[in-house]
Amino acid sequence: MSKRDCCEPGLDRRNFLRLSLGGALGLGLGGLPSLPRAWAGETKQKKVGGFGAAEHVVILWLNGGPSQIETFDPKPGHKNGGPTKAIKTRAKGIMLPHTMPLLAEQMDKVCLVRGMSTREGNHQRARYFLHTGYVPSGTVRHPDMGSLICQQKAAEESELPPYICINGAAGPGAGALGVALAPFTINDPLKPVENLSYASGVDDARFERRRELLADLDEEFAKRRQGAAEVEGHRQIVAKADRMMHSAKIKAFELESEPQALRQRYGMHKFGQGCLMARRLIEQGTKVVEVQLNGWDTHRDNFTRTAQLCGQLDQGFAGLLADLAERSLLEKTLVVCMGEFGRTARINANEGRDHNAKAWSLALAGGPIRGAHVVGRTSEDGTTVVERPLNAQDIMASIGHAVGIDKDHVNYTKNGRPISVVDEKGKLVPELFA
User: Fold this and answer.
1) Which of 382, 342, 336 is CA-nearest to residue 110?
2) Is residue 26's pLDDT more than 80?
3) Which whole number is the average pLDDT over 196-221?
4) pLDDT (average), residues 398-415
5) H helices of 177-259, where?
6) What is the pLDDT of residue 205?
7) pLDDT tens by residue, 236-274
8) Nearest CA to 67 among 99, 89, 36?
9) Amino acid 376: pLDDT
10) For the residues 151-155, what does the mean pLDDT come to?
């Protein structure tokens, strides 16, 4: 298996559209394979409520490893809690840090998982683990959950990419599934998406001639080389990019069409506007959107830095939940907010917190998720999980349940190695579901 076959990364907008008919069509998220939409594993999964209730997924990825004490598991009154105060929320008995008052008003929609225990404390390995449910092996590039969801649930003829990453792509992308299921990446939602229109001097007729020329070149290439599969993959990609260019749905990227008051509600920063774009994209049928917020690797000056980051997270996360609910979209949209791990409860000599995968938190909302609820508990000092420890595989299995995919479905690498959707260690977490 070649590096391209097993290690295909997410593609940015330039590479998606660069190799085009006149600079407009290019490599990126292509047409999807024709696959069954129902699997044998669904029957046993449906014993827990909420199977398949979520039609879309929005992942809010906190890149760098957010401190759980400054986000979802404050420890007021203990020395490990530092200066972070806790405030009451709309959910009785559930406290949040004082830096997230807007999210506190949305906690009736949110389930906090405070018992994450995942062991992987290296950034790259942990990002991989939390996106795929597999520990990196070095021999296989596992597809991430976004690509797996789109494999089973996205329409073949979708006009927009069914999997889009905003502010960069943190996960491994489609991995062994190949480029046709890789995410389309937007590096800055505050800037226009490039290359969506014809190149200068190209009209419809010239574009059509270029399309025909490319088809002839593909055909000739396939005859001269044993590369029929690669040619077919490229054809799918070009067809997908062509549909995207000519679709009215690309207006979903035009945030300036939204009322200014709504944009400000989300926050006029890349994360907040990325969350707004995510809402606009799922309205147009995109299945999975990941929005990244960078900067959480707070080995130094943790409290000042997390206060700034929580301000952005608070606006974007709360704004998204409120907006989805007002548009009757939250009940069919699963929102997952997490990073690759947490941080140490002990404060280091630099007023920072170091890597900690043994006891940390994440948040889920929307779809069939039970709001105003907490799963798992850490000790008073925040150092260990003392109730309901969960691993990345359990979260992946639960996301798959919410979206209605079969976690036991098997994909195969090019050399025939089987890969199930989620590692067999992953167990559905019934307490997450209403």
Assistant:
1) 336
2) no
3) 81
4) 91
5) 204-224, 228-245
6) 85
7) 777 778 888 889 999 999 999 999 999 999 999 999 999
8) 99
9) 98
10) 93
Distance CA 149, CA 172 (A): 14
Q: With a cut of 90, say whether residue 124 has pLDDT above it.
A: yes
pLDDT, mean over the chain = 88
Query: ∠ at Cα 329 (105, 34), nearest 5°?
Result: 140
- What are the helix and strand counts (H, E) for the chain? 12, 17
Q: Residue 113 in 3-state DSSP?
A: strand
Q: Lowest-confidence range among 14-18, 240-244, 379-383, 420-424?
A: 14-18
Handedness of CA 174, 177, 179, 184 (dihedral sign): negative
Radius of gyration over every alpha carbon of the chain, rounded to an integer in angstroms: 22
Reduced DSSP (H G I as helix, E B as strand, rest coil) percent helix, strand, coil of the chain, to 5? 35, 15, 45
Burial 137-167 (b: 16+ CB within 10 A, else e): eeebbbbbbbbbbbbbbbeeebbbbbbbbbb
CB atoms within 10 A of CB 52: 19
DSSP state of 433: B
pLDDT(15) > 50: no
Strand, coil or helix: 224? helix
> What's the CA gap between 180 and 122, in Å, rounded?
29
For residue 107, what are its two tokens? 């906690």
What is the domain class of 38-190+257-432 according to CATH?
A: alpha beta
CA distance 212 to 367: 44
- Please state, in angstroms and rounded to a whole number, the distance separating the CA atoms of residues 289 and 243: 19
Residue 26 · residue 189 · CB < 8 Å: no
**How many C-beta atoms surround the C-beta of residue 410 within 10 A?**
10
CA-closest candidate to residue 390, choices 343, 425, 364, 344 = 425
* φ, ψ at 232 (rounded to 5°): -65, -40
List the one residue out of 67, 69, 257, 33 whose CA is nearest residue 162. Answer: 33
Residue indicated by tokens 């295909």: 8
- Residue 240 pLDDT: 78
